[in-house]
Design the sequence.
């Protein structure tokens, strides 16, 4: 059976759109899969089955399936490195060989290619893994080295959820999964809601998920069942780093903000999942930093994002940061705080706040809602290239920071933290769009100043603030910013 996939339309850049949109010829063995995964508790899983919204839109009733899956890879994990998942699934009397290639994913919403072949027995058929469906990266792989690796066994209850969205029809398969991943002696529970788009726009998945998250704790989570198996075998295999947006001087402000916001949201999701899993303190620090950078970038846009359009996002971020940033700062010096933080984070995930924030922010970004209420000047600013907009912003922020004043009044430096964070966020993510001498050095020195501004006041801290303000003020890059 042919696995040829012929793209008929160019793929839009992830920096411009949050979801890949491809027009393709789809052979019988391949499907385009768009879904969102939501981690839940057992109590929430039971509540979802009886949720009024799903009951109202349930067109098929719930069907119960027992699914047993064997995953395969080489001893070196070469399929995983190529972002390929290969499995055999037993579904009742059906035996299906499936290969999935990972696409783009954010806030738990992913789009990827899925190839399925019916088998007569539960034995991997290597002859199916040929043609254009087999990744070029694996062209030289000896397929005979592919061996069983781990299993996922779970009960799935699924239903067809359908409704009208404007003039369009939406059909989504809702699946309630409960079981476990087993890799050698290691196990992890599977307890999740999967929403897979069958008909309609990807935005409908987020809308449905957000409505459910308003009353139930749902955690958008883009780690697949296969990734969980690999993580059990190697705790470091779950990649926390998403590809950073490639911004340059010719990137329009709207596209730069969209790309960065999606990146920070997606990264915060992966950090939240891994911190939930292993409780490593550094992950919580990075999670808070991602949220703080999203807050700083959002507040820097001026008329390109009228305050009314960003009010809900800023309020939600402020609430999260108000609770978690002081805890992270306290944990820098207090082992007891660090030790208790993981349990507090698990309690956070048992509330609706994190899921609501994640899903509503995804909807806001997908709709590009910061652009909808702005005037002509705001539209011009949103279309401005970073080469013209960003130096002007940084110059204005540097001038307003008044570092010479805080050399005399170091006790008041904390009042400038929002401004320092805005400068830092753009220096961090848009350095490819800036022509500044010693930019990396400035970023490092400003970070030290930010850390000092967050410390409790003492004579030692005040002296350090003065010296660090002088260091930043005298740097070549800062002097250049003041002239912009």
Sequence:
């Amino acid at each position: 059976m042919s696995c040829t996939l012929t793209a008929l339309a160019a793929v839009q850049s992830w920096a411009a759109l949050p979801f890949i949109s491809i027009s393709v010829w789809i052979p019988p063995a391949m499907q385009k899969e768009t879904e969102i995964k939501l981690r839940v508790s057992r109590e929430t899983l039971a509540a979802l089955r009886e949720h009024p919204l799903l009951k109202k839109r349930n067109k098929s009733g719930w069907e119960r399936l027992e699914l047993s899956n064997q995953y395969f890879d080489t001893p070196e994990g070469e399929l995983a490195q190529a972002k390929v998942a290969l499995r055999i699934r037993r579904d009742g009397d059906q035996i299906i060989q499936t290969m999935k290639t990972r696409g783009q994913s954010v806030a738990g919403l992913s789009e990827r290619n899925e190839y399925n072949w019916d088998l007569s027995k539960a034995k991997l058929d290597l002859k199916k893994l040929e043609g254009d469906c087999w990744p070029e990266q694996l062209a030289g792989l000896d397929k005979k080295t592919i061996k069983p690796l781990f299993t996922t066994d779970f009960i799935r209850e699924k239903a067809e959820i359908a409704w009208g969205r404007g003039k369009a029809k939406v059909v989504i398969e809702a699946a309630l999964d409960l079981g476990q991943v087993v890799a050698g002696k290691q196990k992890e529970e599977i307890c999740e809601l999967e929403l897979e788009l069958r008909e309609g726009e990807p935005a409908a998945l987020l809308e449905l998920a957000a409505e459910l998250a308003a009353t139930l704790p749902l955690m958008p989570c883009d780690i697949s069942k296969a990734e969980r198996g690999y993580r059990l075998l190697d705790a470091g295999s779950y990649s926390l780093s998403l590809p950073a947006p490639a911004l340059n001087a010719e990137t329009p402000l709207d596209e730069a903000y969209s790309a960065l916001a999606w990146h920070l949201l997606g990264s915060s999701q992966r950090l939240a999942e891994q911190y939930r899993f292993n409780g490593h303190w550094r992950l919580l620090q990075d999670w808070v930093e991602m949220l703080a950078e999203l807050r700083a970038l959002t507040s820097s846009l001026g008329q390109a994002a009228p305050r009314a359009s960003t009010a809900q996002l800023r309020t939600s971020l402020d609430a999260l940061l108000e609770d978690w940033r002081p805890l992270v700062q306290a944990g820098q010096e207090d082992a007891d705080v660090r030790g208790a933080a993981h349990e507090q984070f698990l309690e956070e995930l048992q509330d609706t706040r994190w899921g609501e924030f994640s899903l509503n922010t995804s909807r806001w970004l997908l709709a590009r809602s910061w652009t909808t209420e702005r005037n002509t000047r705001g539209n011009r600013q949103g279309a401005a290239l970073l080469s013209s907009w960003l130096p002007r912003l940084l110059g204005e922020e540097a001038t307003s920071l008044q570092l010479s004043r805080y050399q005399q009044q170091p006790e008041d430096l904390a009042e400038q933290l929002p401004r320092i964070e805005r400068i830092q966020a753009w220096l961090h993510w848009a350095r490819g769009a800036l022509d500044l001498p010693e930019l990396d050095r400035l970023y490092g020195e400003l970070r030290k100043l930010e850390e000092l501004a967050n410390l409790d006041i003492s004579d030692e801290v005040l002296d350090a603030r003065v010296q660090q303000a002088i260091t930043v003020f005298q740097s070549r890059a800062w002097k250049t910013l003041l002239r912009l």
In short: The chain has 17 helices and twelve strands. The radius of gyration is 25 Å.
